[in-house]
Write a structure and sequence with these properties.
Layout (H helix, E strand, L loop, with lengths): L2 E5 L3 H12 L3 E6 L15 E4 L5 H6 L5 E6 L4 H14 L4 E6 L5 H6 L4 E3 L5 H8 L9 E2 L5 E6 L10 H8 L2 E7 L2 E3 L12 E7 L3 H8 L5 H6 L1
Parallel strand pairs: 1-2, 1-4, 2-3, 4-5, 5-6
Antiparallel strand pairs: 7-8, 8-11, 9-10, 9-11
């Protein structure tokens, strides 16, 4: 059962904790103010850890060493990015997302390979897409027949540097656009996937599971030789 660690017991952090627990996952939530945990429902069974979110010992008490994902959603940009870097670089948590209030910092943080969401575009759903496996390809749009959908793809980190055409060929999708540093970009034939990019593609609804399986693994040797 995947374990999730959340930093920040504000409104968004509490909503995430409740949603993840309702989905059957184990959850730990961190906040420096013990009173913040009062926002959690009375039957919340996850860990409540009082401490600083970027402190290693605090993170260990929250179970970061076994975490599938980490979400930093406190009210401070600096705390969110510091804790996200510790989770990713020290504890090698595979899925990390940080809430960022200052959109001007987004480009720098995404260059570090940490997905960020500016507060003006914030929603709990956006976080869940990045940390919860079954939310990864829910689809942003479906055409009238229901056979095609526009979805946000989740890629293994080893796809970094590969041409988008390689991804299209491997997964059988058509990439519509990418979001890079918070801005939408129409790809060209020589556009490559960069760390932090968000890829939006059209695919057959029936192929969702297969596309997810292909892109969740590293490219095979033949694909790497193409590059």
């Amino acid at each position: 059962m995947p374990h999730f660690v959340i930093m920040g017991a504000g409104r968004v952090g509490v909503m995430l904790a409740h949603t993840l627990e309702d989905s059957g996952h184990t959850v730990a939530i961190i906040d420096r103010d013990e009173r913040a945990f009062r926002r959690l429902r009375s039957d919340f069974s996850g860990k409540k850890v009082t401490g600083i979110g970027f402190d290693r010992e605090t993170l260990k008490r929250a179970g970061i060493e076994d975490a599938y994902a980490f979400a930093a959603v406190s009210s401070g940009d600096n705390s969110n990015i510091l804790s996200s870097r510790v989770a990713r670089e020290t504890f090698r948590v595979p899925h990390v997302v940080a809430r960022i209030y200052d959109p001007n910092r987004a480009e720098f943080f995404q260059r570090l390979g940490i997905p960020t969401v500016a507060a003006v575009r914030w929603s709990t759903d956006q976080v869940l897409r990045r940390v919860l496996p079954e939310q990864a390809m829910t689809g942003d749009f479906r055409e009238a027949s229901g056979r095609l959908m526009l979805a946000e793809l989740q890629l293994h980190e080893d796809w970094t540097g590969h041409a988008l055409t390689d991804i299209e060929e491997a997964a059988g999708v058509r990439i519509a656009y990418i979001t890079r540093f918070g801005e939408g970009i129409l790809p060209t034939s020589d556009t490559s996937y960069q760390q932090g990019d968000i890829i939006h593609a059209m695919l057959r609804t029936d192929d969702v599971n297969e596309v997810s399986r292909i892109l969740a693994t590293a490219p095979d040797d033949e694909e790497e030789n193409v590059r």
